[in-house]
Amino acid sequence: MIQNSLLPITGISAGALAPVQNAVKQTTPAEATESFAAFLKQAIDGVAAQEQNAHAVTDQFIVGQADVNDVMIAATKAELSLELTSQIRNKVIEAYQEIMRMQM
């Protein structure tokens, strides 16, 4: 009885794996460079937006539409995003210099 209820084990055919293999898109180095450049531009635009927001909230504070807490939060966000961008730039430069020092 128990033996009759078990299904036979069969191998997976190559046709069954084809949809999975097609799902992984191969990118060329040029496409990867473009996507990295787009990501980098988006990140820098985000930093600029934080800075513009800090200026806008400061202007609102001057005319009495925002309180000091909003100004400090916006200024701190802008400062942190700029500091993060600066540190990332420093690390990229360090990595580039390390690659240039490698012996070929």
Written description of the protein model:
The model has no long low-confidence stretch (mean pLDDT 84). The chain has one domain (27-101). It has helices spanning 2-5, 14-23, 29-62, 68-101. By secondary structure, the chain is mainly α. The protein contains four helices and no strands.
* Low-confidence segments: none
Largest sheet: none
Secondary-structure element pattern, one letter each: HHHH
Give the N-terminus to C-terminus distance in angstroms. Answer: 69 Å
Oligomer: single chain
Number of strands: 0
Number of helices: 4
Structural class: mainly alpha
- Strand content of the residues, in percent? under 5%
Number of domains: 1
User: Which term fits the overall shape?
Assistant: flat
How much helix, percentage-wise, in residues? Answer: over 70%
**Arithmetic mean pLDDT:** 84
- Using only C-alpha atoms, the radius of gyration works out to 27 Å
